[in-house]
Amino acid sequence: MTTTLTTPIKPEDVENLRVGDVVFLDGHIVTCRDVPHRRVVDLDRELPIDISEGAILHAGPIMRQTSEEGEEEAYECVSVGPTTSMRMEKFEDEFIRKTGVRLVVGKGGMGPNTENGCRDYKALHCVFPAGNAVIAATSVEEVEGRYWPELGMPESLWVLRVKQFGPLIVSIDTEGNNIFEQKKVEYNRRKDAVLPSLYEKVRYIQ
Questions:
Q1: Which residue range is the domain that position 70 belongs to?
Q2: Run of H or E residues at 32
Q3: Options 28, 37, 58, 125, the catalytic residue
Q4: CATH number of the domain that 38 lies in?
Q5: Helix (H, G, I), strand (E, B), or coil: what is residue 28?
Q6: Residue 185 domain flag
Q7: Which of 82, 119, 128, 112 is nearest to 97 (CA)?
Q8: What is the mean pLDDT of the chain?
Q9: Which of 22-26, 41-45, 109-113, 129-133 has the lowest mean pLDDT?
């Protein structure tokens, strides 16, 4: 199944999506990495922007400033590749609960905390194909804002207006199903089936 989600994202927009489905995003997505997660969960700080029913991207973008000295700051997005989502795993359940975010996008799988957050609060975790940071930037229509600039370019909260941002593959759905964990089970089953024949072929190795 392939669909387009538009922010704000309602529970009914995501409840029928399942792992392996493909999503494109219209509207807004906010970059949000380790430090903002830590501020919300460990330090009990509120984000300076409302992301309820919105989308976040685990990413440290590369931005080019387009404004001149004395003008209001303006940027264009050069590259916005996802970073490894597992770094945010220990925060994500509580982060989803506190912020009401509906779509979490990153790279690679996540674990039980994110499964719980997606199931309990009707959210999705999706993966953006790795190695496509520059292509991802072509879906950014405008950089609309920057928050917590003291964190530097990678960790700042960048508000991006996007059109057909994706493809995003649903890795954890609103029932807590996790495609990475499912594939591990399948891999181990297939591995166990072929190992005896492989052992026979390399038995001469001491």
A1: 2-178
A2: none
A3: 37
A4: 3.20.130.10
A5: strand
A6: no
A7: 119
A8: 92
A9: 129-133
Cβ atoms of 144 and 159 closer than 8 Å:
yes
Tally the domains of the chain.
1
Kindly report, residue by residue over 134-181, the tens digit of the pLDDT. 999 999 999 999 999 999 999 999 999 999 999 999 999 999 999 988
| pLDDT exceeds cutoff 80 at 58 | yes
Q: Is 28 a catalytic residue?
A: no
If you average pLDDT over residues 74-82, what whole number do you get? 94
- Is there a domain that residue 202 lies in? no
Mean pLDDT of the 63-85 span: 91
Q: Report residue 142 as tokens.
A: 């405008």
- Provide the phi-psi class of 124: left if phi over 0, else alpha when psi is between -120 and 50, else beta: beta
User: What's residue 188's pLDDT?
Assistant: 66
183 within some domain = no
Whether the CB-CB separation of 83 and 107 falls below 8 Å is answered with yes
Strands (E) across the chain are located at 2-6, 22-31, 55-57, 62-65, 75-79, 103-106, 124-127, 140-147, 157-172
Tell me whether residue 151 is in a domain: yes
Nearest to 126 by CA among 170, 60, 188: 170
Whether the pLDDT of residue 198 is over 80: the answer is no
Quick one: pLDDT at residue 184? 67
